[in-house]
Amino acid sequence: MSDENLKDQQETVRTMLAMGCDREMAAKAVGWTVKRLRQVLKSDPEFEQVLLRAEGQAEFLRMKLLHAASKDEKNWRAATWWLERRAQKRYSRRTAKGLTTAEIQELIDELVEIVFREVTREDDRERLVTSLAALAITLEQEAGGVLPKSVLALAEPEPKDIAGSESKEDAR
Predict the structure, then answer these.
(1) What confidence tens digit (pLDDT) does each residue in 109-168 have?
(2) What is the DSSP string of 82-137?
(3) pLDDT tens, residue by residue, 46-94
(4) Please, what sign has the CA dihedral across residues 103, 104, 107, 112?
(5) Is-contact 104 136, C-beta < 8 A?
(6) Does 101 have pLDDT greater than 80?
(7) DSSP label at residue 73
(8) Nearest to 145 by CA among 92, 109, 67
(9) DSSP 143
(10) pTM of the model
(11) How many CA atoms lie within 13 A of 133 on its CB side?
(12) Torsion of CA 111, 112, 115, 120, to 10 degrees
């Protein structure tokens, strides 16, 4: 790869981060894996600093916009949103069990990682992940939150095939 091509790719990554994209998305946009991005950063500490500044500037810009919006009382939700995210332990929505939506997501993510690491049979793994997704949905709904479609899709039961026979899940 030429130095000029690398510099163009680095500038694209920087620009995307300054716009608010995450590092994974920016890496993909230039045809890199996250591993490749880490290699580039390791070989170029100055570029790492450039990216840190770009990420900080993107966050600061959003905070300025949020701050400006929250000055108008009709935009009280902006202030609420900020408090819920800035001081989660005090202001986040909680389930009946006292968990914040962020804590729920973090816990479910960790459990899914454990399942994928420890459970070797694919059908067992799928069943456990589906159950965890259903639990996440229940806890999120208790807290009044909305789950991403990817989690909702995990918890949907498998449809029956066209002939009407049972799916793998129904057969259990």
Answers:
(1) 888 889 889 999 999 998 998 888 888 777 777 766 655 555 555 555 544 444 444 444
(2) HHHHHSHHHHS-B-TTS-BHHHHHHHHHHHHHHHHHH---HHHHHHHHHHHHHHHH
(3) 999 999 999 999 999 988 988 898 888 888 888 888 787 777 777 766 6
(4) negative
(5) yes
(6) no
(7) G
(8) 92
(9) H
(10) 0.51
(11) 17
(12) -170
Q: Which amino acid is at 74?
A: K
Distance between CA 67 and CA 65 in Å, rounded? 5
Residue type, 21: C
> What is the token pair recorded at 51?
């990216």
Rounded to whole angstroms, the Cα distance separating 108 from 54 reads 31
* 131: Cβ contacts below 8 Å, ≥ 6 apart: none
Contacts 24+ apart (CB under 8 A), 86-94: 93/143, 93/144, 93/145, 94/143
